[in-house]
Design goal:
Layout: H1 10-22, H2 41-53, E1 56-57, H3 60-65, H4 69-75, E2 77-78
Antiparallel strand pairs: 1-2
Helix pairs in contact: 1-4
Length: 107
């Protein structure tokens, strides 16, 4: 039965580890249902936060519409961190920060 299969993908294994710990499930499988296994909205919110810390973007609506381990794992996407843009030109420390006050030479 495909629903009873053990987690196979990395996303499924991450979820299985969390569900095992937080829902006291000894061996979550692909068909394990978050809410039928004891999950609630508060735990769901914590789960979304924990997944973000582990590098995945997840949403509560996805968990509510896809509550089995395999279905929810399929909605997870790697979180992308965007590095701040580096401006062209002089470094900020090289810029005159007090441009409203004229220099003594400009008076």
């Amino acid at each position: 039965d495909p629903i009873m299969q053990p987690p196979a993908s990395e996303r499924e294994r991450v979820l299985a580890a969390l569900w095992s710990e937080w829902l006291n499930l000894p061996a979550p499988h692909c068909g394990s249902h978050f809410f039928e296994s004891g999950g609630d909205s508060l735990l769901a919110t914590r789960l979304i936060g924990e997944l973000a810390r582990r590098g995945y973007r997840a949403t509560l609506p996805d968990l509510f519409t896809a509550p089995t381990l395999a279905e929810f794992a399929a909605t997870l996407v790697p979180a992308v961190t965007v590095a701040p843009a580096v401006p062209d030109g002089p470094a900020t420390s090289d810029l005159a920060l007090d441009t409203c006050t004229p220099d003594a030479d400009d008076r």
